[in-house]
Amino acid sequence: MAGLWVGTAALVAAGRRGRWPPQQLMLSSVLRTLKHVPHYSRQHLMVSRNLGSVGYDPNEKTFDKILIANRGEIACRVIKTCKKMGIKTVAIHSDVDASSVHVKMADEAVCVGPAPTSKSYLNVDAIMEAIKKTRAQAVHPGYGFLSENKEFARCLAAEDVIFIGPDTHAIQAMGDKIESKLLAKKAEVNTIPGFDGVVKDAEEAVRIAREIGYPVMIKASAGGGGKGMRIAWDDEETRDGFRLSSQEAASSFGDDRLLIEKFIDNPRHIEIQVLGDKHGNALWLNERECSIQRRNQKVVEEAPSIFLDAETRRAMGEQAVALARAVKYSSAGTVEFLVDSKKNFYFLEMNTRLQVTTTMHTKKVTTSGALIVGSVTVPSPKQRQHTGRGWQMSPKQRQHAGRGTSPAPVLSDCTEPKAEADDFPVTQLLILKVLGIIRFNLTCADLYFKDCASFPLNFQDPYKSFGLPSIGRLSQYQEPLHLPGVRVDSGIQPGSDISIYYDPMISKLITYGCDRTEALERMADALDNYVIRGVTHNIALLREVIINSRFVKGDISTKFLSDVYPDGFKGHMLTKSEKNQLLAIASSLFVAFQLRAQHFQENSRMPIIKPDIANWELSIKLHDKVHTVVASNSGSAFLVEVDGSKLNVTSTWNLALPLLSVSVDGTQRTVQCLSREAGGNMSIQFLGTVYKVNILTKLAAELNKFMLEKVTEDTSSVLRSPMPGVVVAVSVKPGDTVAEGQEICVIEAMKMQNSMTAGKTGTVKSVHCQAGDTVGEGDLLVELE
Amino acid sequence: MAAALRVAAAGARLGVLASGLRAATRGLCSQATSVNERIENKRRNALLGGGQRRIDAQHKRGKLTARERISLLLDPGSFVESDMFVEHRCADFGMAADKNKFPGDSVVTGRGRINGRLVYIFSRAQWLTLVISALREAEDFTVFGGSLSGAHAQKICKIMDQAITVGAPVIGLNDSGGARIQEGVESLAGYADIFLRNVTASGVIPQISLIMGPCAGGAVYSPALTDFTFMVKDTSYLFITGPDVVKSVTNEDVTQEELGGAKTHTTMSGVAHRAFENDVDALCNLRDFFNYLPLSNQDSAPVRECHDPSDRLVPELDTIVPLESTKAYNMVDIIHSVVDEREFFEIMPNYAKNIIVGFARMNGRTVGIVGNQPKVASGCLDINSSVKGARFVRFCDAFNIPLITFVDVPGFLPGTAQEYGGIIRHGAKLLYAFAEATVPKVTVITRKAYGGAYDVMSSKHLCGDTNYAWPTAEIAVMGAKGAVEIIFKGHENVEAAQAEYIEKFANPFPAAVRGFVDDIIQPSSTRARICCDLDVLASKKVQRPWRKHANIPL
């Protein structure tokens, strides 16, 4: 059994301030150290003190071949690093992933089963078989899937295959919520204060509340779904709350027992990266703030947190280290904390694996820029006896860890540092997860979707408009790597299929700059220059979050999305000048297309007589409002008059490129024309959001007034699949009477179950699906009378 | 009996005379007005069509008038009208009354330009429809007759004749019923005159029909003879006889929409090639479509300015064909990736969806695309898809538009329905069309090319100019399973035999070693290769032995 912590390497300054090359794989460090370690050997940590000397010693011994028990972005990162280090790689894949990027990158690939994860990526037997067949010496689990699976770790140990990750007992201890909380308490880590017993009466409640400190949360012992829950800010409220909650609990659950715990108001989610070795050494490596979440999934991360001060940071770091020591943690891990508005922090949980977003940490580096790369292999008991020593941190690292005052050195997973670490500027970076999401089609108001796993059907569900995964084929895909300070971790390429079976994550987009403002500006730019076609995605939301004034100020919490978008995310709200810019760009594009349509290779038999139009009078419809535009052009420059104000629009007007850089009155904008129809409809991605405009000439617009509104299909009596997926269960049969809102069937897509409900009360006429069917978007599921 | 007939005929002549007299009297009354004023009046009336009331009524139905349609379709200011002063010559049934006479009769004809290129156009108005509608709300044109008068037909014939002599396409915007019953046989003659022009012009100039209203009876055959028939959703119908006659003859209850609406004709009957949302959408799309067409068979396919590099690599194509040969993929994705700027004007997108046909551009030049669609019925060829493909291929061949064929075909669809329906003769049409075509032909076999269908789909053997295979190509008489059942009948180790067959045939080599494909190419290089080939093939010339005309198995 072996463990290996997933190291992170130093963030690099690339000569010029604030202009660093996209960072490479974080895992290099880990695997590099593996080179040092004969795989029968024990533990090892290598510390490089010079950023410039990150390159590993080619004479180091390393694994010959490892198997990566994962897919997508993380598998690609591991393989890339292995390639650099000369380690052969084995990818595993399911049927549907046969031609995916990680499979192509790896030296060998083994199919471990059909598409469902339970039959492939979680199929321990098949993976063990693959290990035997390929004679891989170690397994890197990545994150998710088997990374925290004890059984798998045990199987590997039995075969003497090294598991690159923490050892089993740490996985186990931290995997259990109760045990981890107890352990944390014992290690004197702040946990959410509360009274573990049952509160007898109102006066006792007040006493306990005072002990804990306001605000407190009074909740039913048997509770759930917000019922019997009250927040109290003073004694009076506690008394009232106790009375009301116990009544509610009694009526709702037939059990009036109440608990009290500290109410964390507007908590932030901040996590500390820790590293531990086998000798009880552990150190912490700064924080990442991951407060912006959607369904408990991190959407935006940044480091350093704008909120923490040095003191809090150190306190958190020290507690994180204490916890790591308490569980004898010997790998890389993350300790998650909730932090309230007064900078009180409470332990949430510890992730004993590589994080999706463990990408970088930043901090002003005052030291000579120690770079930590290291690995730990935990020997089997027998081996341990044999060697009697384990991985040990360097004095320098211990110094950091021990001292705790100066947070650990900057870490990143760059493998190609190019600059000296001295004079390292304060850095800021931002990590966004680009997810594939599906839009919630509000026109079929009779279908609601809910995520059964985490949310009850709720009209106030702020996520409903951006909560569903989208699948499809990436018809066009282009990462914004041409921009400075941008890194993209992805496991996809043009033509990749985003299937219903796996995580809908498209990529991780990371930008960094010499300060937060620069990092944010670069992020906005990167999002504008990111081409993703064929699947819907959440770029609009991400771009909106990072320009939101609350976010810019740093006023965020885990409730940010629901607070800021109480009615669901509707896209960017255009200011008047932005709207004029959009209209000017759209009309210039329209005219450019029209002019191009007249450019034929001269046909000698019959001359072409181009219409001579000096001023294009157009009518543009945006959000049901019609705007009058007059555009005229000379060469590539357009003068556009939008609702009375004049704008100059210039561009190359290359109509084939997915990205179009346009200058409007000197302001540079990158827009994407996603679709264009002859009937005047055009979709333009502008400031992250896709706007649908309809552009007609003045004459066509006048005549268009006579066109009749199309009658849309009455969708209340038919239930169609809102997305492609697999039917998990059908709860009705023909002849059944269903009430409005009643569940009719459940569709699973991307590990999410979506309950399909009846749009009206009626009798089931016919059922067109059965459990196990694969359905496409818009497929008829059930018809009502 | 004969005497009675003669008497009747004499009576009719008298009637004509009488109406002539009435007309003369009217002429005398208006003697005072000067010719110029009369011209002005006539022009004004002609421009008003059936009058403001009728224009409003037309708008109320979500439809545009004949002139509005023309103004939207053509470049601004380019329309040159002809025959504005023509009036119908019918005197019966009160038709001679002034209120039933309109300058220009019920059709606006002339010429104009679309994106600078010449086109002849006729826009059949709806005035009589309105007269009739006023009498009865229902719109059954077979019962009430229609509005094609002799004068009307004459106008259409005139511009068609001109279009043929000049060599420019004709676009007909149709919004009128069948024959004008009041005119009797003269109306029928008018139809035939138009039919004759349609046939004469066929293969000489592109002819496009846009159905923008009801079109019934004999009137439907003119669109049917043209190269492309487009419809407007919800407001246009095409049928031989309306629902009332259907009810009385076959006792079927059917609505106009079900019987001959845009959906019926674009999904079930295959009569129409595409449907658009409304008049404005249809006319805008028609402008777009017109840009793909050459003006006549004397012109080569038009080349429009193109921003998409001809040597662009398309990496996404390298993974598009699934490894399992049973798994479907969308051929339209391949087409979009290969052509200029992902612009593809699909013809008959909702009919016989197992074959895809349509226009696109490669390095600016219009090309006709034919592709099997593995997503629908595995991309097999059946009766409907063969006919759909054949007609498209013949159009491209007639008008010098190069053909690009993407092949993934498991064969012809078996079964009694197909055999009884005549798959043999219908399938032969596609075979015939590809074999007959002398335009540049480039073929890309993406995956399956089995059996006779392989031959049919623009194979090397039918004079394909350049035939490529992707590494995923499987060119064989049939799939492994079927083949093994025949070859190794009775053998025990079927699996081994299948594996052997797959090893031998489920790859592009058997065809490549025989020169039946010119090269095995990386999918990502497909666009670059095709663009390069088309440049070379632009000067392709093929001589065929003289014949009056070929005899396609109709």
UniProtKB/TrEMBL annotation, chain B:
Gene3D superfamilies associated with the record: 2-enoyl-CoA Hydratase, Chain A, domain 1 (3.90.226.10)
GO terms under biological process: fatty acid catabolic process
Domain CoA carboxyltransferase C-terminal, chain residue ranges per copy: 309-548
Catalysed reaction, written as an equation: propanoyl-CoA + hydrogencarbonate + ATP = (S)-methylmalonyl-CoA + ADP + phosphate + H(+); butanoyl-CoA + hydrogencarbonate + ATP = (2S)-ethylmalonyl-CoA + ADP + phosphate + H(+)
InterPro entries, alphabetized: AccD/PCCB, AcCoA_carboxyl_beta, ClpP/crotonase-like_dom_sf, COA_CT_C, COA_CT_N
Keywords, ordered alphabetically: Ligase
Pfam families: Carboxyl_trans (PF01039)
Gene Ontology cellular-component annotations: mitochondrion
Domain CoA carboxyltransferase N-terminal intervals: 32-305
Any GO MF annotation of the entry: propionyl-CoA carboxylase activity
Protein's UniProt keywords contain Ligase: yes
Pathway: Metabolic intermediate metabolism; propanoyl-CoA degradation; succinyl-CoA from propanoyl-CoA: step 1/3
Keyword match Ligase: yes
EC number(s) from the headed UniProt entry: 6.4.1.3
UniProt record similarity statement: Belongs to the AccD/PCCB family.
Quaternary structure (record): The holoenzyme is a dodecamer composed of 6 PCCA/alpha subunits and 6 PCCB/beta subunits.
PANTHER family in the record: PROPIONYL-COA CARBOXYLASE BETA CHAIN (PTHR43842), PROPIONYL-COA CARBOXYLASE BETA CHAIN, MITOCHONDRIAL (PTHR43842:SF2)
Descriptive protein name: Propionyl-CoA carboxylase beta chain, mitochondrial
Organism annotation: Rhinopithecus bieti
